[in-house]
Amino acid sequence: MFCEHRCQNNCHGLTPCNETGACTGKTEIACPCGIRKQEVRCLASSTNPEPARTELKCDDECLRQERNRRLAAALNIDPATHTNDHVPYSDETLAIFRETPNWCETQEREFRVFSQSPSEIRIRYKPMPNNQRRFLHVLAEDYGLESKSEDTEPYRYVLVYKGPRFVSAPSKTIAQCVKIRKAQETAAAAAAIASVSSSLLIAVGAAFLLL
């Protein structure tokens, strides 16, 4: 084929491939820094070798990672060995996950499969209690997906669908982020204790000097 994809027509023997039609294969576009990526239709042809494609712009996460890269370079830190402790989920998502991890992991797997499927546009869930519907809504927000509840109790259900905000699923799982957040809280608590201890030592030392 004129592009990097295989010819999609039925075998036509030794005759040349017809490349006048737009290629229906998938290709990947990226934002200027290369962090955000998205699959789109190729659409290349012999008459249009470089078709216009939607421009993928950098977002806040790109800017954050670029700042981290510059800081790592300034401090001579190897990003490959440095732990990325960014948590892309809300505190509410993490809290609900801690209460019912098995059920939440099942929903998260379905979200990831849905996010990676180019043909699926929306998911309609069966009716469920309010607390479970709440988890679907907050997780959809974390993913950049749209969600809404329909119908009245006890038949109220959730619709999750892809809108203009959606790019891709978070790179980390919720379980990974729960561990990261716990480590962050432990480190913060230890730092607070160390700060209080240091203040007490200074106060005791000052008291002795006054004796």
Keyphrases for this structure?
211 residues, three-stranded antiparallel beta sheet, 5 helices, two-stranded antiparallel sheet
Shape: flat
Total DSSP E strands: 5
Low-pLDDT runs:
none
Distance between the termini: 90 Å
Order of helices and strands: EEHHHEHEEH
Helix/sheet category: alpha+beta
Sheet-strand content, in percent, reads 5-15%
Main sheet attributes: strand count, strand direction, barrel closure: 3 strands, antiparallel
Helix fraction by DSSP (H/I, runs of at least 4): 40-55%
Number of helical runs? 5
| Average pLDDT reading | 82
Question: Biggest sheet, strands in spatial order?
Answer: 3-5-4
Please state the CA-atom Rg, rounded to the nearest Å. 25 Å
How does this structure look, described?
By secondary structure, this protein is of the alpha+beta class. It is built from five helices and five strands. The protein has helices spanning 60-74, 91-99, 101-116, 130-143, 174-210; strands spanning 26-30, 37-41, 122-124, 146-150, 157-161. Strands 3-5-4 form a three-stranded antiparallel beta sheet, with helices on one face. β1 (26-30) and β2 (37-41) form a beta hairpin. The chain is flat and about 85 Å long. It starts with 25 loop residues before the first strand and ends with a helix. The mean pLDDT is 82.
